[in-house]
Amino acid sequence: MKHLQKRVAPTFAPILALAVAAALPVAAEAHSPFIVPSETVLSRTGWITVDGAVGNDLFYFNHAPLRLDNLKVIGPDGQAVTPENVNTGKFRSTFDLNLATPGTYKLVLTNSGLNGQYETASGEKKRFRSGGGRGPGGPGGPGAGAPVGAGGPGGAGGPGGAGGPGAGGPGGPGGRGGMEFTTEIPAGAKNIQITQQQSRNETFVTAGKPNDTALKPTGEGLELVPVTHPNDLFAGEPISFKFVLDGKPVPNLEVEVVPGATRYRNKRADTKFTTDKDGVLTMTWTDAGMYWMEASVQDDKPTDKRANKRRASYVATFEVLPP
Amino acid sequence: MRASICASALALFTALGASTAFASELNVAVEVPRLEGAEYHRPYVAVWIEREDQTVATNLAVWYETGNRKEGTKWLSDLRQWWRRSGRDQTFPIDGVTGPTRPVGTHQLKFTGDKSPLASLAAGKYKLVVEAAREAGGREVVRVPFEWPAKSAQSLTGKGSSELGTIALNLAP
Fold it and tell me: Interface pTM (ipTM) of the complex?
């Protein structure tokens, strides 16, 4: 990251071009993104289909499709699995997945970027946003394991472009990494607030006997480390999930849980839980169904040193079966 | 003459009967009920013995569409409790356990204490569990608690209300 620090000195003296990368998370924070598999417990290898969308009603497609640019599917051996028949429509994205080997798969969409605001020398308030890679820095090169073209790194020295070709094609020529932070922050700008945004949206599917290779945390951002296997969920049974931030347990984290089928009841029925001193959430599902879970952390400990604040969020979908 | 032959025969049978654990029996009768409806498919059924902690001590029977090579095993996970307690650790068919689906009626399963799987069943409190799931139908689980080995002859029953009829468990010491 040293080279980036040289380019973007604290006074932001160089004038850099604004870059808005292709894979921005949907702006409206009030809306819930979700990934819903057609089923999560299969008795054998085979295909499933998956929906992704954004909206407040769970799990209905009435607002916007989920951008799948940074979708990654981790198989039971930890290797990437390529989604097929990927499509983004008006309200919903879909893809099919061949669970070719037995075990547990994790479907995960991560986004990271920087956004913030500053005041120009004349006192005018401005906002900016950049981002699009899956993490800070890192060498460019061939579409680094992202099965669906994860906007390749920009060319050396140029503005972060709209990413390389999709569907696993090679990324741009080896550049400075997945996230090119370039913004129009002029000399003399004041009150510069830069927030590092890290978001994670995931769900889990098991074919045959479950395993936990795909469940291992990456150590970046806010993550859920299952104590109870995420495809072993039954109504009326207590479960435990551990939350970690950059790999460390998060005590007193508020976690919101909402059951699906929100359209057919008059209360949202969201419940808030809190992790204990070891970062563990213990809860019991009341009924069978699909559930949405969200947690987020805001602090001043960004891992991307260009920022002075950080917001990490976690969203997941779980299927709970009848006992 | 006849009386004494009978008497000695009786003595012989009594002596044999008294000799023990090897004669113990566990018999299960599972009733697949007659159900109304335009579309009827024979249910998938799993019968097993569960320990007090709900782990599976042994599988007794699993009826599924063994003849359906393409999709028969696909629906085994609809037997939700059995699947997560045992099914997902197995490969199919399971010798001596799996078999084709059964029609409406009462089906008998007989086991003796001197043979597998009961020969290795430790003494303790158990439940006989029967789970049924039916295509275009519902799902039901019935449990019948019992103790092993049986200290006396017992007839225990459980009753389903939808996908299963009477589950009878007969034990002989």
Answer: 0.82
